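Reopening: structure tokens for the magnesium ion complex, inputs below.
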Amino acid sequence: MSRVQQVTVLGATGSIGLSTLDVIARHPDRYQVFALSGFSRLKELFALCVRHTPRFAVVPQAAIARDLQDELRAAGLRTEVLVGEEGLCQVAADPEVDAVMAAIVGAAGLRPTLAAVHAGKKILLANKEALVMSGALFMQAVRKSGSLLLPVDSEHNAIFQCMPGDFARGLGQVGVRRILLTASGGPFLHTPLSELEHVSPEQACAHPNWSMGRKISVDSASMMNKGLELIEACWLFDAKPAQVEVVIHPQSVIHSLVDYIDGSVLAQLGNPDMRTPIANALSWPQRIDSGVAPLDLFAIARLDFQAPDEQRFPCLRLARQAAEAGASAPATLNAANEVAVAAFLEGRIRYPEIASIIEEVLNREPVVAVDELDAVFSADARARELTGQWLKRHGR
Ligand code: NAD
Ligand code: MG
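Re-run output (same inputs, fresh job):
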């Protein structure tokens, strides 16, 4: 077997980061942790360093880095602590690294993920916001560096598994008609519309099938997550937005499907546990044990499907609109959503206002070409500014 692979885990203290480390720890003969990053749960980051003895750890500020460095030395560890975005980019691009798990949430993950792409690494992509913001530039960079891009988002990993190996020739060329992107419908699938006004962040984060970070949990409740995933699918599989259909499937057992012109529809099924797509991406094209229990179809008994209701899930419509507009629109959508979701989680706005804010920002902000990363970040900054103005105007 080949040598042990060095893996950098960006966002190690998060839900995806921890699941990744769980899979890695099952295969010490195959994978070694090269670097870990954390942003807020620093006690946990220390414990992860003790457990996985990485060469580097990355934290947001110099003062935090000094403290962690002292603690690590006192514990007899040789892990070196780096700081900020520069540190993240360094451990993403280090010549010794084979694979980078991109699991920072939101726009903050874009530069470090791109650093890994430019360095030609194997990218295990969980950070969908990075691709949503800068899709064209991101995919161009992947092609240029020859880096291997493997989707970790469960739906995209499922689609990847159901696609023929040569799908990069073009969906039409390989006989793919449509991508069917499944969605659980989240915690508010059956909540009366009039009650959505009063739902709390805790209710929004109580996902029926998946345990995830708070931002993606709210995105799942609003189905903005599915909207971001629609855009993500268009870039990963070179599909038009009209070729991606969203299907609500409340059991989250089918993780997505590919519809071929001969009428065959291939699906990937599994328990809703992110260790499956993580293990799949880590070991591709081989397969390794992920620790996930075998699927018990008799216990599941039935699989249901329904069309999404746009009145209940306006964010899905807004994301499709941004996908069709292209250029800077997805970056605008993503930034407005990040700020609005943070405001909702802080109790400053009501749940339905997330969609109202995003709609207003999308309508006010012109769609401009994004030929350079700077243009992506200016669209992101303008959308954050406009969202901030909305909050101020409404006294939040
Ligand atoms: P999380 O909130 O649990 O973890 C986020 C990680 O990013 C943490 O390690 C945190 O310290 C770090 N982080 C947060 N802000 C940062 C910043 N400004 N700079 C640097 N690091 C920062 O989130 P998660 O659920 O693990 O999701 C991570 C990414 O994976 C998201 O993009 C999400 O959309 C995607 N994803 C998650 C799941 C899931 O099941 N959790 C599934 C599919 C895709
Ligand atoms: Mg997903």
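The mean pLDDT is 98. The chain has 16 helices and eleven strands. Marking as resolved unless the reporter disagrees.
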